[in-house]
Every structure is written in structure tokens, then in C-alpha cells.
TrEMBL record:
Keywords per UniProt: ATP-binding, Membrane, Nucleotide-binding, Transmembrane, Transmembrane helix, Transport
Protein name as annotated: ATP-binding cassette domain-containing protein
Taxonomic placement: Bacteria, Pseudomonadati, Pseudomonadota, Alphaproteobacteria, Sphingomonadales
Part of the full-length chain shown: 356 to 584 of 606
Chain ranges of the ABC transporter domain: 4-229
GO molecular function, one term: ATP binding
Any one Gene Ontology cellular component term annotated for this protein: plasma membrane
Compartments where found: Cell membrane
Main localization (coarse): membrane
Length: 229
């Protein structure tokens, strides 16, 4: 059963300017799909519709067969975890920043999430561990470390669906490779949708959807798309 369905979705931010022109695609449960396309194609817009920051003008979006306009904001938030491009951390402890994703997260759950995000070697080196303050007056984390905290924050919610919105595009190439390896592991056994503007960052996807100007223009595996280029 497909887990994420876009069914003829039409959307524009302003009434006279359509951004998504009847977008349709299906991501089967457990698959790792990616959406690529040039800047302005509508990739972030489709992610915003999935979270219901906006609703389509027409068409439907289904998660596990349910129209998302019919589910509560709370259950939508519980079913989708997002790793954004630039994660905002609070000026608080690492533990707080990870646990923030879920009310009442226990220390064990925070540690498990940190392990999943490969954060433990960093935390182990800190005298105060998870109680280390980060941010303006605390420890300055590198871009890659911040992304690991963001990944842990997502993992602590254990969401069945993962959306990676340009999750590595702000990082240098080597850090990007490290984080991609972590994300690949994290996406296993989940349904995932990675938004990217370069094919190189989504080589692991089961299927790649190429969108341009709010329309699906082709789809295929990484190898198929490279052959067609
Ligand atoms: P991508 O993520 O593929 O780069 P976006 O979904 O961000 O593309 O943008 C698609 C189009 O929608 C662009 O033309 C962009 O300028 C426009 N757009 C994005 N966000 C807004 C907004 N909040 N209000 C108006 N137009 C927007
Ligand atoms: P993201 O960083 O998630 O891709 P942004 O909201 O920063 O999304 O913007 C994506 C694109 O949409 C950018 O090209 C930006 O210029 C454009 N955009 C954002 N807000 C507006 C807006 N209110 N009106 C027109 N274009 C917008």
C-alpha cells in the first residue's frame, strides 16, 4: 500500500500564480524516494503541503491511505519527521535539543536517538555529556554536528515517514558524505522522501522523481536517469 500519495495536486501561494500543476506520485511504504529538480521547481513547496503549512487548491495528499486534510495536526506531526537544511538549535543542552522533538522523552530514548545519529562519540568526549550547553554561550557545534543533533531530534519521535529537505546541502563535501551515510542508515525500514537539487546526494534512493516547474517530468533509478542525461 502506498504510504505517501500526491493525487493531482494543484497549488499556488497567490491565486494568479500556480506553482504545482497537478502533481501526482506515489511513494510505497518502506521505500526511499527522492525528489530532484532545479531551484524554484516546487520541491520545498510540496514538502510544505505534506506538513499542511498550506493546503492544495485541488487534488489530495494521502498518508497511509488517509487524506491529510482529515487527520489532526498532532498525528501528522507524529507520523512525519523532517531533517531540514539548516537546523535551529536552542541555547540549551544537547539533551534538551534532542528531546525537544517529543514530550517526556526519557534519557534512554535520547541516548538511543543520539546513537542512531552517530552522535555518541561527540557526546562521550564532553565532560558534561548530554548536559553540555550548546549555542551562543555554550559549545559551538560544527555544521555536521548540528545536523546530527537535528537527526537525533527527528529519531526520538520514531516517525514512520522521514522527509529530508536538502538535509546536507549546507555542508562541505566530506561532512556531507558522513551525514549521508548516517541518513541512509536512518532511512532504512522507513518511508523516506529526500529533497535535493543534485543527483549525487540521492544515489541511494529506490526511485527518483524529477520535477520541473511544478510538474513531474520523469522518474527512475539513479542509473536510469544518468543514462538518459
Ligand atoms: P524549490 O524548493 O524547488 O527550489 P520552491 O518550492 O521553494 O522551489 O518554490 C517554487 C516556487 O514557489 C518558486 O517560484 C518560489 O519563488 C515560489 N515560492 C516559494 N515560497 C513562496 C512563498 N512563501 N510565497 C510565494 N511564492 C513562493
Ligand atoms: P527553502 O529554503 O525551504 O527552499 P524558502 O522559503 O527559503 O524555502 O524559499 C524558497 C524559494 O521561494 C526562494 O527562492 C525564495 O526566494 C522564494 N520565496 C520564499 N518566500 C517567498 C515569497 N513570500 N514570495 C516569493 N518568493 C518567495
Amino acid at each position: 500500500k502506498p504510504s505517501i500519495v500526491f493525487d493531482d495536486v494543484v497549488f499556488g501561494y497567490e491565486p494568479d500564480r500556480t506553482i504545482l500543476h497537478g502533481l501526482s506520485f506515489e511513494v510505497p511504504a518502506g521505500e526511499a524516494f527522492a525528489v530532484v529538480g532545479p531551484s524554484g521547481a516546487g520541491k520545498s513547496t510540496l514538502a510544505r503541503l505534506l506538513f499542511r503549512f498550506y493546503d492544495p487548491q485541488s487534488g489530495r495528499i494521502l498518508i497511509d491511505g488517509q487524506d491529510i486534510s482529515q487527520v489532526t495536526q498532532a498525528s501528522l506531526r507524529a507520523s512525519i519527521g523532517i531533517v531540514p537544511q539548516d537546523s535551529v538549535l536552542f541555547n540549551d543542552t544537547i539533551g534538551y535539543n534532542i528531546g525537544y522533538g517529543r514530550d517526556g522523552a526519557t534519557r534512554e530514548e535520547i541516548e538511543a536517538a543520539a546513537r542512531g545519529a552517530s552522535l555518541n562519540s561527540l557526546v562521550a568526549r564532553l565532560p558534561k555529556g548530554f548536559d553540555t550547553e550548546v549555542g551562543e554561550r555554550g559549545l559551538k557545534l560544527s555544521g555536521g554536528e548540528k545536523q546530527r543533533v537535528a537527526i537525533a531530534r527527528t529519531l526520538v519521535k520514531n516517525p514512520p515517514i522521514l522527509v529530508l529537505d536538502e538535509a546536507t546541502s549546507a555542508l562541505d563535501t566530506r561532512t556531507e558524505q558522513d551525514i549521508l551515510a548516517t541518513l541512509h542508515r536512518v532511512a532504512e525500514h522507513r518511508t523516506s522522501l529526500s529533497i535535493a537539487h543534485r543527483l549525487s546526494t540521492i544515489a541511494d534512493a529506490n526511485r527518483i522523481l524529477v520535477i520541473s516547474e511544478g510538474r513531474l517530468v520523469e522518474s527512475g533509478t539513479h542509473a536510469q536517469l544518468l543514462r538518459r542525461d
